[in-house]
UniProtKB/TrEMBL annotation:
Cited SMART domains: PGAM
Binding-site residues, substrate: 8-15, 58
Species for this entry: Peribacillus loiseleuriae
Name of this chain's protein: Phosphatase
Residue ranges the record marks as coiled coil: none
Length: 203
């Protein structure tokens, strides 16, 4: 059996101001740093064999804060990055909603029908989510893995594990900053133990 923990990065300045991040990056806030430390403390008695992280700074820094004094290696992989939002990145959600009303509505309500010529489509992210998951499971048929990534990427990954179609993507549990999800994978079958838990975080 392989145990997989999924963690979303800590809160960033862009999260607070309502900016779309994607491949862009807002710096971790003081709260985001504290929550990452708290998540590390929550996991301190669990032996983690390896940590996989998105190459985005906010995720990699969160992984480092969680790891603290652990000897487990941190492996950065571009496939764990957030969905690219193209020319929406760094812009306020409320501005995007006004200027790109149809596309923005499709993004949140009908992701399987969302289309733009800038950034990635949900299907693009689903492809790399499946690819990196299969890579990690093949490499670690047993043991305990921590994956640090981003909200939409993690939703797409969990949808894949549940065999959910993209139109059901946002019906899943909300994954807040520094949230933790635990999954057991036995003979290729994933079982969700808990999801999106933030009991270790300051509110």
């Amino acid at each position: 059996m392989t145990t997989i923990y999924l963690a979303r990065h800590g809160q960033t300045e862009w999260n607070v101001t309502g900016k779309m991040q994607g491949w862009g990056n807002g710096e971790l806030t003081e709260s985001g740093i504290r929550d990452a430390h708290s998540l590390g403390n929550r996991l301190q008695d669990i032996s983690i064999d390896v940590i996989y992280s998105s190459t985005s700074k906010r995720a990699y820094q969160t992984a480092e804060l969680i790891a603290a004094e652990r000897t487990a290696p941190i492996i950065k992989d571009d496939r764990l990055r957030e969905m690219s939002f193209g020319d929406w990145e760094g812009r306020l959600r409320e501005e995007i909603e006004i200027e790109f009303a149809t596309e923005y509505k499709a993004f949140w309500e009908t992701p399987h029908l969302y289309e733009r010529n800038s950034g990635e489509l949900f299907a693009d992210v689903a492809k790399r989510a499946e690819e990196i998951y299969k890579h990690i499971i093949a490499k670690h048929p047993s043991g305990t893995i921590l994956i640090v990534s981003h909200s939409i990427f993690l939703k797409i990954l969990t949808a894949y594990l549940r065999n959910l179609s993209l139109d059901k993507l946002f019906t899943q549990t909300y994954l807040g900053n520094a949230s933790l999800t635990k999954i057991h994978v036995t003979e290729g079958i994933p079982e969700f133990i808990f999801e999106g838990d933030r009991s270790h975080c300051e509110e």
